[in-house]
Amino acid sequence: MSEPTGLRARKKERTRDAIADAAVSLFLEHGFDRVSVNDIAAAAEISKPTLFRYFPTKEDLVLHRFADHQGEVARVVRCRASGIKPVTALHRHFRAALDRYDPVTGLNDHPQVVAFHRLVFTTPSLAGRLTRYQLEDEEALADALGEGIQARLRAAQVLAIQRVLARANWQKIADGRTARDVHPEAVADADQAFNQLR
User: Fold this and answer.
1) Any idea what DSSP says for residue 104?
2) Which DSSP helix (H) or strand (E) runs through 78?
3) 91: left (phi over 0), alpha (psi -120 to 50) or beta
């Protein structure tokens, strides 16, 4: 008798989360470059080949957390209400994320989120891999915006704005401010950036 597909998928997702959680805990405690794949496999109580079935690279153990947002900007443009310009939809989406203190905006002061961002932003191989994710998002957004160089330029500008805003928000929090304190500035910065883009 075989397991129902839904149960199998949930078990696989739980295993994936457990492996990633073990890895991130080790990375935060010891540093990304000081933790081996063998260390992670041992902490997660799995074999190294099993680990690689879930995560093709060591960087993916950290950056899979960004997967929830992969392609998000393109979806915002494709699913916007009739009559709403793409940049307006993207601006509103980013503002709503700021209001939710979504970690992807950099505006989140939970100690684990701050430490996670520090890990990503200060580890060259992670920052490089994150850039690759962003380039994939840029291509998807360009496709959603239309064809030609104008769509590609607009997509690059939107993602650069979001990246700069998120990094600025994170830096203020990393310097000791609270997310609630930074929020009005983050909103004002986002408004100014998207208004310039228009």
Assistant:
1) G
2) helix 72-78
3) alpha
